């Protein structure tokens, strides 16, 4: 995520942010022409860009991240706060929580109940900023994932993904759900119990291209994380619904649909048998698709997915007639 804070300096300083006041003072001296011990040393006015960067660096060295997050939480829970003030507070908390230590601190200072209250906010931007914060908090952070489940955030986010009328909010909800469930068996259990696969399938049936693609990616990722989940996918009719997508007029999303189907059937006999059901006519559809894409480089990956899927469900490496 782009950082709009004060650690963005002149090009030659970006990779040497000072970690102490002493180092900061040393960098101030380096802004002069020559060393102070040099007889040719000349004091020159500091360029405004560098002055601003050093001011921000000094501020970051002296500020308490926990205290700043507490200030943000007060803004988020005060009725008199404006929408812009709340958005700015969320932006700052997001920046602090990109540090895993501060992410844990956010829970300890009572941040998670505030997140629950913000999820149904009337402002779409506040809703999606809150979801982005949740994603930042739980991504690759076991403690924060546990606390998010304790706060019952996953079912709430699935509901938002399924019912919110703002496409950006839905996309951010899916992002947060994905961050929480990735490599997390407990979160995946809740996801299944709350009919998360049906929510994903409905996301793939919207007209929001980015949402559809991300939903298909998450479906494929779950197959890698938990092969046993494939049984659930078969039992809930996921294969029927994915094949149904292929029956629609050809579009760019079919590549991701085939990738998801391929992830489900790989090394899973039950899924293979589902795909072999005569009424689906999947083998026929795949052969037709391969023929129609032959020689079209822009659909090379989709064609390859179709060939691999066809090979698995027919148990033979069929040479499609051209």
From TrEMBL:
> Is ATP-binding one of the keywords?
no
Q: Does the keyword Repeat apply?
A: yes
Which keywords does this Swiss-Prot/TrEMBL entry list?
A: Repeat
Q: Which GO terms describe its cellular component?
A: endoplasmic reticulum
What molecular function terms (GO) are annotated for this protein?
A: adenyl-nucleotide exchange factor activity
| Entry protein name | Nucleotide exchange factor Fes1 domain-containing protein
Ranges for domain Nucleotide exchange factor Fes1 come to: 23-105
List every stretch annotated Disordered. Answer: 1-21
**Which Pfam family is one of those matched by this entry?**
Fes1
Top-rank taxon, per record: Eukaryota
